[in-house]
Design brief:
InterPro entries: Methyltransf_11, SAM-dependent_MTases_sf. The protein is an alpha/beta fold. It contains eight helices and eleven strands. Helices cover 36% and strands 28% of the residues.
Length: 225
């Protein structure tokens, strides 16, 4: 069965010290740094780093004195974020800010956040249905006129190392055994719109080399009504 095999592969990959170190050393994307550096703080203060990885975006938010939270599905990544933030405040304080959580079942109240930043996360959904659930959860925890800052891999380019899963439509498996849902930009934005997340400004597309191969990235900002 593919699900147990992929789950084991994902636990190994995301918990691998070498991969954690790579994510630790990766800089914050300059476009998110610019967004949060220039944001109107009377409108944007409480922010969630969704899929925080090794904590680079969370650390940036802490540096700009945002009231932030962070979560990641992998416990090793969540733990790495806690330790990375410990230099800013006590470990006990960071534990209250950082959670292990799934993007399809977030442990936050409705309308709690002014903004969510999701940097390379949504394509890690385990099915197209789960991608829709993740967008619904994101919309649920955002206040009215809240922001979603996102980037994700899409089907604009599907590398040869990605193997399609039979009878699963948009689901692929990487050479490392990781599941990845690749939908088109148009499909993603349509799914977002169905969950009250609408385009705010420019949507950018480009190819990028990452640790798992060459991927087609779409990024932008969405906003709730």
């Amino acid at each position: 069965m593919i699900a147990p095999e992929c789950r084991r592969a994902e636990d190994i990959f995301w918990g691998d010290p070498h991969n954690i170190a790579w994510f630790r050393e990766e800089p914050v994307p300059p476009y998110w740094d610019e967004f949060f550096r220039k944001a109107d703080r009377t409108a944007v203060n409480r922010v969630l780093d969704l899929g925080c990885g090794a904590g680079r975006v969370a650390k940036m938010l802490a540096g700009y004195s945002y009231d932030f939270r962070a979560c990641d599905f992998n416990p090793e990544m969540a733990r790495e974020t806690v330790m990375r933030l410990a230099g800013k405040q006590s470990i006990a304080d960071q534990v209250t800010r950082v959670s292990q959580a799934s993007m399809i079942a977030l442990p936050y109240p409705d309308g709690y956040f002014d903004a969510v930043v999701s940097n390379g996360v949504y394509h890690n959904a385990w099915s197209r249905e789960d991608l829709g659930k993740a967008l619904g959860e994101t919309a649920r925890i955002l206040r009215s006129r809240g922001y979603l800052c996102f980037n994700l891999f899409t089907s604009g380019f599907v590398a040869s190392d990605l193997k399609p899963v039979a009878n699963m439509g948009d689901l692929y498996v990487t050479a490392e055994g990781l599941r990845m849902v690749l939908v088109s930009k148009e499909d993603f934005l349509e799914m977002a719109g169905q969950n009250n997340l609408h385009v705010e400004g420019e949507i950018t597309e480009y190819l990028r080399e990452v640790t798992t191969g060459r991927r087609y990235v779409v990024r932008g900002v969405l906003r709730t009504d």
